[in-house]
Design brief:
Length: about 350
């Protein structure tokens, strides 16, 4: 503290196993340090409860990374976070199995909030924060959407990344019939990255402000899910469809699989706002071509459609070569006269690592 520390990383564990949290007392000077800006804490024996006499601690702390995972750590963190007056960047790493975490704390200056759940994650997370200036939310872990409860009064939230992997197999399709509170809490963002297995389309909230969307397509996801997102995002301008090939097999053998069915009414964003479309890891299935055909046919202001894939993907699914893919794409009718189609193929040879084609 005397050397005016700016960043501090405390990673202290009792090798004999978790003891009663609080055995290791920290000096009061740590909590009152005026130069400390970034703090990272991970311990099974450290007491980080602020001094009872301190109405506010860490007067300059802007970044806090805290690991939850031991008895009383949640309540200790809640007490700590509520007394950081200028905190802007907060990361919570939940690693304990079998606990239910309910956190409620004020964060007047918070702009970025990350919730990370490891393989030993808790059954339920409930986060309620008073963060009127919150702009960015990141939720990443191994649980489903219904395991997270997040509420806040932030009207300035711009970007959200929801990366949750759970129940991703043909035999165990993860479905949620009501709108997950987590999605309800981010429905006003402009940028959304949604990598999570499919849930019931009617559980989706409306994303009226959404401009940029990235969505992961798992083996248990269907194109109807994508159409539902388009219908509920009337002002969407850019969309990225990321096909997770390791979760896909022959579609007709996936339980509950339904082929692509074009909607009777074209979504507003498709006909009026959609400017760029990117499809990553294109496999060459018939449904994928039907989706490309549909989007080209009805996207009136589309500027660019990009298809990226590997040569091995095309050959494995339909014995299709890069040349055949180019020819098939040329046959699709384009509603937008200014639209360009870009095809990027990893040729996976020594001579050509990548090749691209502009149509």
């Amino acid at each position: 503290m005397r050397h005016k520390i700016v960043e501090l990383d405390l990673h202290i564990f009792d090798q004999n196993g978790p003891r009663r949290l609080g055995d290791l007392q920290l000096p009061v000077s740590l909590f009152t340090c005026k130069t400390l800006v970034a703090l990272k804490v991970s311990s099974n024996c450290m007491n980080l409860a602020p001094p009872p006499s301190a109405s506010a601690c860490f007067p300059s702390l802007k970044s806090l990374h805290y690991r939850l995972g031991w008895p009383d750590s949640a309540s200790m963190f809640e007490m700590l976070a509520s007394k950081c007056p200028v905190l802007e960047d907060l990361t919570i790493d939940v690693c304990r199995i079998g606990n239910v975490y309910t956190l409620n704390f004020p964060a007047a200056e918070l702009k970025t909030f990350r919730i990370l759940g490891s393989l030993m994650a808790a059954d339920k997370y409930r986060f309620s924060i008073n963060a009127p200036k919150l702009e960015n939310l990141v939720v990443s872990g191994q649980l489903g959407l219904s395991n997270y409860y997040f509420s806040n009064n932030a009207k300035a939230m711009v970007k959200a990344e929801i990366h949750l992997i759970h129940g991703c197999s043909g035999e165990n399709i993860y479905r949620v019939e009501s709108a997950p509170p987590l999605l309800e809490g981010v429905s006003g963002v402009k940028y959304l990255s949604l990598l999570t297995p499919v849930f019931s389309a009617r559980s989706l909230p409306s994303f009226d402000n959404l401009k940029h969307l990235k969505v992961g397509l798992f083996r248990c996801s269907y194109w109807g899910y994508v159409i539902a997102l388009l219908k509920r995002s009337p002002n969407l301008e850019d969309i990225v469809l990321d096909i997770w090939t390791w979760t896909w097999g022959k579609q007709e053998y996936v339980k509950g699989y339904r082929p692509f069915n074009p909607p009777e009414v074209v979504p507003i964003c498709v006909s009026s706002h959609l400017r760029t479309i990117s499809i990553i890891n294109f496999m060459g299935y018939d449904d994928e071509f039907e989706v490309v055909k549909y989007l080209l046919q009805y996207s009136e202001v589309l500027r660019r459609l990009t298809i990226s894939t590997r040569e091995s993907y095309l050959f494995k699914t339909r014995r299709m070569t890069a040349e055949k893919l180019h020819k098939k794409a040329l046959k699709f009718q384009k509603c937008s006269k200014t639209c360009e189609i870009e095809i990027i193929i990893n040729c996976e040879t020594d001579r050509h690592k990548n090749c691209s084609c502009h149509l």
